[in-house]
Design goal:
The protein is α/β, with parallel strands linked by helices. The protein has five helices and six strands. The two termini are 23 Å apart.
Length: 157
């Protein structure tokens, strides 16, 4: 069970981070990131989870600004909170044609964990709002360094 003060870095492992996405469209990129969770023990059904994320994305773009997007779904196709990250050096258009995204944080949470989900998203938003943290995430040479940047930033917040 996820603790109320769960950190983003606690939910990530190097296998859940792809430092160079090959996709060029929003939905392809979300799927590419979702595939990182294919063997995650908390994902009940990957395709259904992905479809829930797409349905949410079609309601309103999950672009949050500064080249970052949080595609997500509250769905029981995940047993506990999950996160995967994709990075694109070229950027991927999200929503309108003016918005290119470099960092995609894909989030899944069971419907029963609403407050945990809100706490996680709030914490993640605070982290990526920091220009230095965002730059370090974009420049991290390895998935392990990517996680270390998040851990260091979480200690300061």
């Amino acid at each position: 069970m996820v603790e109320e003060d769960m950190l983003v870095s606690d939910l990530l492992s190097p296998e859940q981070i792809k430092l160079e996405l090959t996709s060029t469209t929003r939905l392809e990129a979300i799927y590419e990131v979702a595939l990182l969770l294919e063997h995650h023990p908390c994902v009940v059904e990957l395709q259904s989870f992905y479809q829930a994320v797409v349905a949410r994305e079609r309601l309103q773009s999950t672009y949050v600004g500064e080249g970052v997007a949080f595609p997500h779904a509250r769905t029981d196709f995940v047993k506990d909170m999950v996160i995967a990250v994709g990075r694109s050096s070229q950027g991927i258009y999200f929503g309108d044609a003016e918005r290119k995204v470099s960092l995609i944080f894909l989030l899944g949470t069971p419907k029963r964990l609403t407050s945990h989900y809100l706490a996680l998203v709030g914490g993640l938003a605070r982290l990526v709002k920091d220009t230095t943290v965002r730059t370090q995430l974009i420049q991290a040479p390895t998935a392990e360094r990517f996680i270390a940047v998040l851990e260091e930033a979480e200690k300061r917040i």
